[in-house]
Amino acid sequence: MPLKIPKxxxxxxxxxxAIVECGGxxxxxxxxxxxxxxxxxxxxxxxxxxxxxxxxxxxxxxRLTRNGEALLNKARELLGDAFQLEQLAxxxxxxxxxxxxxxxxxxxxxxxxxxxxxxxxxxxxxxxxNLEETVLSGSEDALIEKRVDIAIVSRIPSGFLGDALMDIExxxxxxxxxxxxxxxxxxxxxxxGRNLQxxxxxxxxxxxxxxxxxxxxxxxxxxxxxxxxxMICNGIGFGWxxxxxxxxxxxxxxxxxxxxxxxxxxxxxxxxxxxNPELAGPGTCRLANLIRKVVVDGxxxxxxxx
Length: 306
What we know:
By secondary structure, this protein is α/β, with parallel strands linked by helices. The protein has helices at residues 10-22, 25-32, 36-50, 66-93, 110-120, 138-144, 189-193, 225-233, 247-251, 282-297, and strands at residues 55-58, 61-64, 99-105, 128-134, 150-153, 163-174, 197-200, 219-222, 239-242, 256-257, 265-274.
């Protein structure tokens, strides 16, 4: 099957656009640094190739015909795509990756994650971001299976190096009307074992773990941290939840810390791992540096409009 070649060129459409936007042939020629005769020839040739009148003269101005307006609107999209293609080529020539993949532990504050992505977006107009949100060992799996360039993990897997990012504080909580709160005394491990615990299932499969689970048959597991939070806020079971995730619920009285004699609070550290620091491209490096910076700066977010 013979290869089809377009009759018109992007250059011809760019000349037509210049005539319309500048108001005439002479003005377009000056803007494009061409002779007026070459501008006139290119548009005449374009109309001949298409068999459609594109321009009409109204006084001293060149105006689009109805057909010309419809065709130029489509051509503007093609011209925009062509410029983006050239910009992408420039980014790739500078080493920017076409895609950066990142796995983020669900414990990482969403406010900070959004801030990181907001700061990264202006730099990465030609780089796709693939974000994988994980639970427990899920980010470790993503590193081991080479699915991501960057990972925020709660445990650094063997064979990788990482930087400590932040500590996450957990607190044992239940709804204020939960039976554990009606005992009127400090709670022991046996008290918890006789009540339903809600946990989040590990999204990893290579080395799954049960961080924070009690040896109790009264245990329900869910895949979504948000679902667990909603269940506990509605009086279903208890659990250790990240304190920064439940600040509003504690203030609103939907959750109340359990009066455990020991073990009411726990701590877990998150680390930042660049999968292959020696081969990391500029996109990966910038995203990793933004994560470090945003964590250091804290959750003081800039307004969307200034």
